[in-house]
Amino acid sequence: MVGMASYLQLDMPKKRIDLDVIADFAKEAARNFLKDKVPLNSSIVKIAQAENLTPEAVSLVVADANKAVHESLFKVASDKYIDFDLADPKQVLDELQGNETEKTASVFDKDYQSPPSYSESTAFEKTASFGEHYSGHKMTLKQEAHYAMEKLSHRASRLDDDILVLNSKIASQEHSFIKIARNMLLTQDFSDRPKAFPFLLKFAMDAGLAKQQAKTLVTKLAHVMQQQGVIEKTAASEAPESLISDEVAKTTKVTNGDHPLYILINTLGSDYDRRDMLDRDANITKTKLKDLKEKVKVL
Questions:
Q1: Can you give the pTM of this predicted structure?
Q2: What digits encode the pLDDT tens for the residues 256-294?
Q3: Which residues, in sequence order, are CB contacts of 202 under 8 Å at separation 6+?
Q4: Domain map (residue ranges) of the chain
């Protein structure tokens, strides 16, 4: 299956994004934020200028920096509610291009390329931006509880909406993966197509997906191609990780960061991680809301 391995490695231009270097840039920005309170956007702009980063590289640094800060704050947060000023790829690129940053970035530019934003507060904590109708009056315990319930309910609803939109984005990306990979496989002889699935699986893992994520994605491709009659019915069995031989593992090491599948899979991996964080936050929020409702009943 040299043809598939060569296609994945060599057919595109050799310019690549070194993910190890990207990770170092993201860690630097995260450290500046956590230690010295330097805004993430400011650090990333300086790094991008010094290193002459491409827009794609800037987006990767932004996503990794947001994730690094979120993970660091999440570890020490008592109630797992985190709030910090997220890096925004649009704002960074606008500043790099000398344009005034727009205040209304699109949903996918901001909310769905970054870790979730959290409100760092206890269930009963009052904030200046919410509940101003209580200003100047000391709330009773029951009022505080209803106020906290309203905040949690609003947050739970917003998280459900975020997950719904993100799932739609992920579905579109998976469709694009299937379309691109299918067209690649159709260049192979009919009998050779099933042999390509272990290569695609290893490629997906090298590009950043977890093992189960990669197997699920490649299995979806196999099912679609089976339904279309362009591969044998047994091709789905070619996808499991156990079929990745030592030879395949060596020959399909990712060497081309600009391959369209590489970029797409890397983006999918970030969105899969973001969805996991949103799901986790939604579960925490709904559990807190349920517990609070039980407390209100006895007040």
A1: 0.53
A2: 566 778 888 888 988 898 899 889 989 999 998 898 888
A3: 244, 248, 249, 252
A4: 17-122, 138-299
